Amino acid sequence: MMMMENFFRLSLISPFVVMVLLGLSFLLRIKVNERILSTTSKYFSLYMAFLGLGLFIMAWHYSPDELLLNDGNWIKFAHYTFELRFIVDLLGATYSLLTACLIGIIFRFSRNYLHREEGYFRFTFLLFVLWFGLNVVSFSRTIDLLFVGWELVGTTSVLLISYFYTQVQPVRHSVKAIVSYRICDMGILAAGAWAHHYLHSTDFTELPKLLSHDHGGKALIFIGIFIIFASLAKSGQLPMSSWLPTAMEGPTPSSAIFYGALSVHLGPFLLIRFHDYIENFPSLLIAIGVIGGLSAVWATLVGRTRSDAKTMLGFATITQVGIIWIEIALGYTNFALFHMVAHASLRTWQFLRSSSLIHDFFENPVVKQDVSIRRGLSFLSVLNPEIQRKIYIHALHSFHLDFFTMRVIRGVSYPMKMIFAVEKKMMNWDNKLLSRIIRK
Amino acid sequence: MSLQPDFEKLLTRIRAKLPIQNPLHSFVHNNILQMFEAKDFHEALIEAGSLYRAKTYWPLEKYQEAFSSGKLSEEDIMDALNHYEGYDYQIPQLDLLGITRKDFFYRLMFSELNYNDDELQPELEDERLWIHCREKVKNGELVLSRSPVKWRGKGYWEKHHNFLFSVSVHPFVTRLTGSFLDQGQSFWGNPFTQDGFWKFLAFDLAQTGSFLSGWQKVFAKKVKAYEGKAPGDVIIAELQAMGLPEEIWDSYLLDILFDLKGWSGMVNKLELEPWQATVKAPNIHLADFIAVLLLMESSVDTFFSEINSLEITLIRGRKEEIKLHGFPLSLALYQVTKSLKLDERWVQKLSTENALKIIDSVDTAEHRHKICLWHEAFEHHYYRNALRSIMGRDPNPKLPKDPFAQILFCIDDREESLRRHLEETDPRLLTYGVVGFFGIDMKFSSLKNDRLIAQCPPVVTPSRIVTEVSVEKESDSFFHKINNLMGITDLAFYYQSRTLFRGILSTLILGTLSIIPMFIQVFFPEHAKKIRNRLFSFVSPDLKTEIHIEKTDDLHGYDVNEQTTIVKTIFQMCGLKENFSPLVVLLAHGSSSTNNPFKQAYGCGACGGNAGIPNSRAFAKMANDKRVRENLKAAGIMIPDSTSVISGYHDTCTDETFFFDIDQLPEDKVKRLDEVKKSLDEACKKNALERCQRFSLPEAKVNADEALKHVRERAMDPAQPRPEYGHSKNALAVVAKRDLTKNLFMNRRSFLLTYDWALDPEGATLAQVVIGGIPVACNINMDYYFSLVDNDNFGCGSKLPLNLTSLLGVMTGSQGDLRIGLARQMVEIHEPVRNMTIIEAPLARVQKLFEGHKRLSNIMHQHWLRLVVHDPETNKWHIYGHKNWIELQVEDPGLTKVKTSVDVLSLINKIDFAEIGQ
User: Fold this and answer.
1) Which of A429, B322, B520, B721 lies at a C-alpha separation of 20 to 30 Å from B907?
2) What would the pLDDT profile of A135-145 be if each residue is shown by its tens digit?
3) Which H or E run contains A436?
């Protein structure tokens, strides 16, 4: 277990150190050239892959035992302590190994892909931040700590969507992403607050045990609800789905790593982490299953009508993540984990080689005047053609998800607008009064 | 559909101006502004600039930087001014300035006029002049005559209502268009493709009516009101209802279409040439597309004018005045005076009215001419250099009398360096440059894929079909079965992995497996192909094939006479009559790259962007045919029986060479071929080294072996956005015998076409050489030019975020317009220089040819290329100016002299020409 602890510490601290060094060099305006960056990331990937593999083997070996670490407190004030508690188990080690492998591949890919690119430094730096964030999420044992990593991943994701920040569309779509993230991040905060309030702990390992002591009664279900809500945005499940297909604005490798692989699977990851807790509430399991199912059906229908490589992959990802949610709801968490790993690898590869499609099709001996294979197998073909056409149209418009979202936003913002209007009037009235007094 | 005849005409005019947009799998280099070629280059660029909303020249700073760094000299500027004088532009109020036009232009080039710039703090060194200027125009007011008149509401809404079309309007239509045109990328094919786009849209709006908001509601209402009408009528009716004057209809519609120029171009292409579609063109009409865009435009106008209670007629046709008065106006006069090197006495003499006129005139001239002048200067620098180098050389270089082998290359600029290296490596070899499709205008279907592919330049319509057949008939059907099975598996995985239930299965299986190919391809790209090939050859071993060229019916194959003509033409171009060596090699070319949507742009331009292998194989077969050889004797072409013609292939990216049908070669020739192959390998190595100088990675710049390894890795790497630099830097075309350019280092910037003037008194061969080669060279040159000068608007931007759409093209990011042109990574090292063509032939012969051919005459007279003729009868050089031929004086070239090409490589970024001598 000692060796495992060392491996864990190294794999958590190493990306942090590189991240800080790169960040400092940027702040101090020391130019780090492409060559140094690419060499660093090459050897670093090897090193991390070694750590990840070691950790994974050890975790496998000790499983189902897990290594629990308590590294003291980070911040302490009044009754609150921010404790640094970590857990090293098979789930975390698997995700960390996946991270190491995929980011390693992305680094190697980007070495040529982003060669001579102005944003090479930015891109590399953000990937290190992502790495650190993901490892924090993988190994944290409290909601508070997990939130740190969660936020880092979200921020890098948004910054890479707007990689081409001089153009309108990437920036708009990154705003869309950040708004979705922020709304759902409130879920984690709320879950943390709730857990602190009722159970006086946010430790994943302790929560299920505390539950049986029955401290808060029905309010405890809300922790689960918040956690599910928090996982919506990152994994693009309904109703927080519309940002994901439009997030494909950055360089291809960044789309691959975030929306095909690592960021998008954090939702199910969180659910698996909380599975011991959530499974005490059957209604929550049903909710997870329903959300996953609806998202999967919605996304597969919409995705079928999309004709561009990346958006289509975005919808395909939502579909499979929806299935993973269902698997979690049914309690097959290990299978879900395997599904996640397989899915992440496949999508990364599909994203990376999405540019080959035109020539793949053109050189395919079967594709001539028709690609009939596609429609022949669709499960919708049993329906009446007129109904099929109608479904097609609505799928093309994403079943009006944006329209409904805008409705909700307007509904929510209506009272706020009223308050603003009242406030404005009062201000006017105030000013008038003031000016009258001053004149006197 | 009955359209009004007027509308048909309108549509034709509009079509002519849309960008030429091919699906990417049949990408060909085109002059994006080919439809403007009847206009003078600079004039066309002004019009195109406003249509494409693009810059049409390099940024001014780039040219000025070349000047300040000493690359451009005063001489170049003088050349440019002299040439520009020929345009005879009228500058209003020039007489008031008291200087000549040439002088005016010269001063304009170095002017500093920035009175419109709010951010720059103007320098006012000359206080006395400043006082005079301020006095002069104290109460004046000037509306600059370049103030635009805007007919569209778009600019107004974007500026004053923060309503961006690209965000709020275009995604609506691009998604519909993408799905309508889709060739099979999406799982669920659009069920409306046969109904037409207009009906699809109407159905769409009717279905989704209750989910629309804002302008879309107005749009739905309008579309409903026009229900059942033909799109042509809708357009006319809407334009009339909008109250737009008829004379601006063209430009108004074009302006709207150019918001989505890529999709418009594609719609136009698929309507006119449906066979270009990857699979099957949908029932699409440009008129439908225009109707939709127009109604969207007018809906937005209506919507905003209603909610803001604005009179829409005020917005249409508004003049966006650029007004100068007060300080900026005085500043303008001050800067004009300063820049034109005039003084306060001149200002004193002016009347206020004239002062305003002069400011306006100079302002207009500055926006019109300054950049053109700088551009011309930049070009003239290269032209001067090229002409001096070529004109002043020894006209009779040593060529082998009794060549060991003769090698026919493509005219491609990328082959220039290989030819040079090959001749240096083995001086016994003779090289020629002919158009890489070897005169065979065919559609070709290969054994692996029986889709018909045009193997000829896009300007030629293929007349025949030629097929590849297997020699061993018995294994044929097995091969096809396996081949089809692999195709089906491929497709099935593509579709299934993106679905729901089948997706689970394929994700689990493929997902775990995908790690392996991903890992190999990303980390060891150079081995990935080998492994894959070995695997495939295990499943389906490669068959021995031959090209079937014999005529079977009117569509298939060539008869003996036709074959004779083809062979005759090519050998005549090369000037080959009796002096055949025992081995004649036809070296076709192509380029391999991985994960590259622009693969086609790197191929052989003369073969429609494909590899030229089938053409060279077919040609070799024809030229080896005894019947053809017999027939050729009548034309005076005596191919001895001891001569064998063999087909080869050069991969311009990996610098590998292959030969085909070697088993049909006589025993003694095989040895000879081996020797040629050895020299070629050596030359390829040096060629790779030369190419590596242009890449910015230092590791492969000194060692030829390393360089070769490096370029091969580039071709296999899925992450490589620059497998090669293609035609970057091309600027020259030389139509002459090799004598003219032998031993001259030309830095891979020149197309080389072989033509022997002495054997062609009629000029028929010249016509074939020039018409087959020069327009292609010009297209390539212009494609690179425009993609370079404004990569965002003429090109397709960075390769990094590109997203393949509908199996037709690429767009940037998750939605938007289809991109046109070339990617930034393909053109980044190019230089904007129009093609200069040097022809060695009697002047009268060239004149007759160019005047008699429509496109050639246009590109010569309108300056889309610069034409130079070396008349070997009088030994004089002539350059085409403005409707006149100017005789050039031969100057001392002052060339750098080096021993071999390899010695010059360290200077490759500084010099374009060098003499290679023993």
Assistant:
1) B721
2) 999 999 999 89
3) helix A401-439
